[in-house]
Amino acid sequence: MGFLKGTAGFVRFSTEGELPEPFWDFVAERVAAFSFKDIDDTYDEFSIGWVSIHNMFDSEFNFAAYANGDYVTLALRIDERKVAPAILKKFIDKEEERIKKEKQIHKISRSMRTEIKERMRVELMRRAIPIPSVYELCWNVADSTLLFFNTSSKAHTLLEDLFKETFGLTLTQQIPYNTAEHLLDGDDITSLARISPAVFV
Amino acid sequence: MDLVDLIVEKRFLGQEFLTWLWWKSEERGGSIELPGQGDILVIFEKHMLLEFGEGEASEKLICSGLQSELQEARTGLTMGKKLEQARIRLAQNEHEWNVTLTATLMEFRSVRLPKTEGTEQGSNNPEELEGMVLERIFLFEELVRLINDLFRIFLAIRVGEQWRGEVLKIKTWIDHTRIAHTET
């Protein structure tokens, strides 16, 4: 969301944990291991991985496209097959009608309904085209900080999990309180823990 | 305390920072002095979101308009509403940013970077592309640094003895708003 062009929205994270040396070899190996795998020609429902910030189809990272000066810049790509609830319901109802007619019964049993539901879900899921989402990030390795160009908490959770798997580092979103802990020292941090809300009226 | 609890229990910190920053920016007509760097421009404009209460019972008040028309937002403050989101224009030296800053999560939304030659190139040349990316990173980090510098000034006052005096000044500012509003 706007890292490379136009208006941007982002949140800040801090990174915690040790990084192995040589750093850039480690990054190359781990980014390759967790790069994005296309699911257009499979029946997989979900895929998540890293792609280049310049091109969502580039998961090869020729010429180390994730390195920008001392920064690691990556895009998190998620492809997900989804079926709208209304479509699923329509196909379940349709299948139930077909079976009732075929078997000449008035009512579908609970177990049969569960089976139809699951079968229709899988069938429709396979026919659905994966919907892509791409979120960019910029990691300042020296400062252990990261800008993530999306403000949805769902995307944050996916980022935190993939980042941990890829680099073994824990991300913590920087909200005012923990930002304050980074900006203050010693006694002031103790004082910060004790403050209570002010009343302005 | 885990992050979810911190967000709920300490949300007043970000809201107080935005309210303080609004007052501070008006104290000297939009200028705030950063130690060792001189004055920077901080203008609250166009869009504000105030909140009152918690969870399902919370009320929201969205105010938009020109700077002079943010009267409703000021009146909201006099009713105990908290500033949750504000559109801010920041300028230092020849660079100017626009950002909508949220109080509880400190999100940087709808960020407009200063226009520089380096950020406007549509080049495919790898070296120029890397230069453009680095220029944008620099400008994003400069914005974060400025907000953090302002936040640091606020925090030093907030955790210290000066805070009581500062609250009185903010109260007076809010009261003036109330009087001005009643007169109009």
UniProtKB/TrEMBL annotation, chain A:
Gene Ontology biological-process entries: DNA recombination
Q: State the superkingdom.
A: Bacteria
Pfam families membership: RdgC (PF04381)
What is the recorded name of this protein? Recombination-associated protein RdgC
UniProt organism field: Candidatus Desulfatifera sulfidica
Automatic annotation (TrEMBL), chain B:
Protein name per Swiss-Prot or TrEMBL: Recombination-associated protein RdgC
Native species: Candidatus Desulfatifera sulfidica
